[in-house]
Amino acid sequence: MLVAAAVVATALLVLNTFLGRKVRTLRKLSPYESGLPLLDDSHKRISVKFFIVAMVFILFDVETGFLWPWATVLREGGWLVFWPMLLFLGVLVVADVYLWKKGAFDWE
Predict the structure, then answer these.
(1) Structure confidence at residue 87 (pLDDT)
(2) Model-level pTM?
(3) Residue 66 within any structural domain of the chain
(4) Among 3, 21, 77, 104, which is 20 to 30 Å from 85 by CA?
(5) Does an H or E element contain 92, and which?
(6) What pLDDT, on the 0 to 100 scale, is given for residue 25?
(7) Collapsed DSSP state (helix, strand, coil) of residue 33
């Protein structure tokens, strides 16, 4: 199935290269933001808080991704499954406390 998917994807790309229309206008080659022309050409600085919020979101997203399957097999696994997840949650609590002390949760 993987080979078939790779063959189809490669065939579509090759066919597009040879059979597709190549209309190159200034409007098509200019950059855009969400389908609209750029508002200005300046290079603006992005706050580091934006990236910190993104990393915190990933941290909580990974936590949820691990907690859901763990909760479904907790009864069958017993203590053998409980202790590694407790260690994982402890690491997450340490990370949350660190982020709190650094001010990552301050929305000023």
Answers:
(1) 92
(2) 0.49
(3) yes
(4) 104
(5) helix 79-102
(6) 85
(7) strand
